[in-house]
Predict the structure of Spermidine/putrescine import ATP-binding protein PotA.
Amino acid sequence: SGSPTVSGRDVHLRLDGLSKRYGDSVAVASLDLAVPKGELVALLGPSGCGKTTTLRMVAGLIKPTDGRIVVGGHDITVMPPYRRDMGLVFQSYALFPHMSVAKNVAFGLEMRSVPKAEIEQRVKQALAMVRLEALAERKPRELSGGQQQRVALARALVIRPSILLLDEPLSNLDAKLRDEMRNEIRDIQQNLGITAVFVTHDQVEALSMCDKVVVMRGGKLEQVGTPVDVYEHPTTPFVASFVGRTNRLEGTAQGDGRVSIGSSEIRVPGRPGGRVEIMVRPHRMRLVETGSGQDAAEGVNRVAGRLSRVTFIGDLLQYHVDVNGAEIVVEVASDHGRGFRTVGTPVAVLWRIEDTMVFGRCA
Ligand code: ATP
């Protein structure tokens, strides 16, 4: 058909140089993005990076300054929101308080003049999808936060939108409910095969739910990739430290794969030169006591330091190690709370060369 594809799937939503300026300030700067049909894509980034502005431009609630929004090959950049065939779910559920759950869900269909019998059937279906059939006659105030968010989801899906847009839909829920809803939203999205864009500042949410993660910073796209890509192969120090926890060390690269960090020397993949940033995930590191005989093996980096703090967080032990005044955090699985070492102990931190992420110093 000649329609463009990404990873073998037809592109359903495309953003071409999408931009939004407010006076001199740039909220979104020339964003290019292709979302394949049926994929769930996360817009991930810190507060103010332009996630919500991007989503609202896609929804038609904010008018772009520049660029195009293309859905299924049709340019919808100037189409009014109600004609865009998109389902929206916001952080605040925005339910009508005086209407029952069923009426809330039916609203969009009534607006579209769908016949009564069909409305009834589709509302039933949508409520079944979010497991709320039993609560159809309740008012929103008689529901928990998680249940209200499910109503909002049913209301968005009942119109059978071509694209589902979710703006921080889980941030008002407690941690346990958030985990549940994550899986639920993902299951529904996959069962329907619906294309969806999900705004979040929570990296766990982005990694665990989405097919692709779009990391944004200062209105710009920093990296796009699968969750494994952005976590294991971040292309910038920003992505490395925003997606997942990481230790950060500065050093001078010799150009032959060696890097000096203070009085220590380590090896890194590749042959960078000059000032570099070294990043290593805490769970990729091990801790040994100095003089324990467990010295660095082939392919393993070793830096010496002193244990400055031990934190027990249930399933993990976190060791904070002072290495030449820099702090390194090492995480190990907690074995029934055993394995504590004494603060002040001279230790060495070990990690594999291949687990070392290295970045040239960026401005
Ligand atoms: P958050 O997670 O805090 O919602 P965000 O990544 O969604 O952040 P946006 O809400 O898209 O960020 O805002 C992007 C930038 O645009 C911010 O710097 C914000 O201050 C600015 N901005 C948003 N709306 C307006 C507006 N109406 N007028 C001027 N500046 C705005």
